[in-house]
């Protein structure tokens, strides 16, 4: 406990206004970590703090701000008032700006003014999120943000000027449900030579995207596309492809075994069944291995694939055979009624792995197993070919299989030989 005299002595040694005498960088650091409304309210703390918020380089306008403003005033008026104060009072650069949870806005003219303001004040990190039912058409001033390094757009329409040559400093790009042509998208990416992370979630139909991004390390795609060409991405480490519509028969034939040649250092690969079919479209006779092994691949995830469908089983096995340094395999099985894989194809699976040993594989997870022959052969194979395996998790398809079937599958799996003495098989029979 502090004695009274000690307390008085401590107070006497302090400046009369501690807050006003904090270093400017400390004040800025404090305000950046506060919600914008609280940062503005800090102006009442002292005379020196009155306009500190006006020079904040990072601003966020989102639901937390709307919920704390006067609810008796309509949203449009509240937003207009906030934007007016920003445009009128803010000084200095704005390097990061987030605008989200916009609703019930009659028109976007005020947003256009805001984007123009940002384009003239050194914006580097920009997030714009608009409602699905009312996308925002980006104004011409948006394409003059020459210092843009991080960009995230949700429900926007992108129609760049004819003179637009891309964002030369762009490092991260995220486009979610935007309206953009394949040509514009390819041009935007190819003119962003420093791009390292690319996220695309586009449900509108795209025909062909060619990705030329020499610095790209991560690419995450969800949408409907006929072809994605990854030609100049030598440093790509993470690739996730989820196609939402089955590939068209008119797509033509692609060489699945050569698709990964441009990015041999890939470490994480995640494909769903439609993207797997897309990459293997027309390749009815897939080679046992890729033309160039994926020696860097550590994690392979395959979602909603049917191992009893030749068009999905063959490329899946090819990827496993071609990735000798795999550490983790995750396969989620989709049980659909299709023509089963011929017995002769299943019988050849063990021999096709005769020269393969997965010496680095430590973890395997199967979800949705029903006990079909291709599934059981793959389980058996991975147990026999993985001397360093630690754990294999098996989640059967409880909804589409009986208890008797699940117990039969469990009995069969317990008899499979294991190359690893430490391998633990966790099977959830649901009993």
Automatic annotation (TrEMBL):
InterPro entries: F-box-like_dom_sf (IPR036047), F-box_dom (IPR001810), FBD (IPR006566), LRR_dom_sf (IPR032675), LRR_FXL15/At3g58940/PEG3-like (IPR055411). Pfam families: F-box (PF00646), LRR_At5g56370 (PF24758). Residues 16-69 form the F-box domain. PROSITE patterns: FBOX. This is F-box/FBD/LRR-repeat protein At1g13570-like. It comes from Solanum pennellii (Tomato). The lineage of its organism: Eukaryota, Viridiplantae, Streptophyta, Embryophyta, Tracheophyta. The gene is LOC107019219.
